[in-house]
Amino acid sequence: VQLQASGGGSVQPGGTLRLSCAASRGTLDNYAIAWFRQAPGKEREGVSCISGSDGGSYYAEAVKGRFTISRDNAKKTVFLQINNLRPDDTAVYYCATRLRPVCAPTFGSSWYGRSSDFPSWGQGTQVTVSS
Questions:
Q1: Cα gap 129→91, rounded to integer Å
Q2: For 118-129, how does the pLDDT look when each residue is reduced to its tens digit (9 = 90+)?
């Protein structure tokens, strides 16, 4: 499956963005899809994952309450809604799939995924938050 992220842009603090991750080849059905981000000079970090088995959504502790992940299998797209954007959200955002149904490891609604667990990646989309 090939993934393509889009929807990034430059916004002011407090703004909202909705990122999209579309499958240009293949299907997203039954696959867990995750969003990662990488800020300049920092390691890539996982922010959210949505299950391919039951649609369960999971988040990194740092983004809970502001990020919402969802999926539309008919449109072969996963979305990441980011509310109340902050300057430290500035990063390139990537979507990726494990090519498996479940997000792991999780605890409750928290997700602790690592980029090394995801073999298939899309191109990133830049999010810049500044006033």
A1: 9
A2: 999 989 999 999
